[in-house]
Design a protein that fits this description.
binds zinc ion; 3-stranded antiparallel sheet; 5-stranded mixed sheet; alpha/beta; about 25% helix; globular; about 220 residues
């Protein structure tokens, strides 16, 4: 949803720096949720994002079949009369896929953002990989023996874990937003009679942009 200019201005500080930007935790958790959208699992879509100490993303992953095991042939159902047709035998969890797809030599001392608290199998691999911190969104399976075992191992191995409390319930990605970005500051005395826009920290005459009257961000206010 677009904001009106007053709302946008109120979210800028004295040097017009935008103050409503995402913080790191929200950004990386949102990425974990975004990559989960790639999952083919009809019940649970989980994503994970691994970040190093300089806030660089070193890996993302989501729950899926191993390479070469076709999404269209291997089973996605949780239970089946034929035990060989249950997904748990095949699906790689997001945490493991992320660790194995890292774009650096190792993930020692990194932190992992993940939608669900890791299971015991992932916990083993997380510990062995050297990841030191888990930030998770949901612990809805905290009663399960797998989760209890995972926490037991994390505690023993000094892997920290903390639940993320989202600042916003939802983050909406509006692909059309890029077509009406820019905050107008009509009170600024620039060389043109037209109002001026601030975009990416620079003053830009909106003569080169769309007219504020036609700007969707204003029309939507
Ligand atoms: Zn797992």
């Amino acid at each position: 949803m677009s904001m009106n200019p007053d709302q946008q201005l109120s979210e800028c500080n004295h040097n017009y720096k935008r103050t409503s930007y995402m913080d790191w935790d929200e950004y990386f958790m949102a990425l974990a949720f975004l990559v989960a959208k790639r999952s083919k699992d009809p019940v649970t879509q989980v994503g994970a994002c691994i970040v190093d100490n300089e806030n660089r993303i070193v890996a993302v992953g989501y729950n899926g079949m191993p390479r070469g095991c076709s999404d269209n042939e291997f089973p996605w159902q949780k239970t089946s009369k034929n035990k060989l047709e249950e997904k748990k035998l095949y699906v790689c969890h997001a945490e493991v896929n992320a660790i194995l797809s890292k774009n650096c030599s190792d993930v020692k001392n990194c932190r992992m953002y993940v939608g669900l608290f890791p299971c015991n199998e992932c916990a083993k691999i997380i510990i062995q990989s050297g990841i030191k911190t888990i930030i998770y969104m949901s612990d809805k399976y905290d009663y399960k023996i797998k989760t209890i075992a995972a926490k037991r191992m994390f505690d023993a191995a000094n892997v920290e874990y903390r639940q993320y409390t989202p600042k916003n319930k939802k983050i909406v990605i509006d692909f059309n937003e890029i077509n009406h970005t820019g905050v107008c500051y009509p009170e600024n005395d620039f060389s043109t009679n037209e109002s001026n826009c601030i975009e990416d920290g620079q003053a830009i005459s909106n003569l080169s942009l769309s007219s504020p009257k036609k700007s969707k961000s204003i029309d939507d206010a």
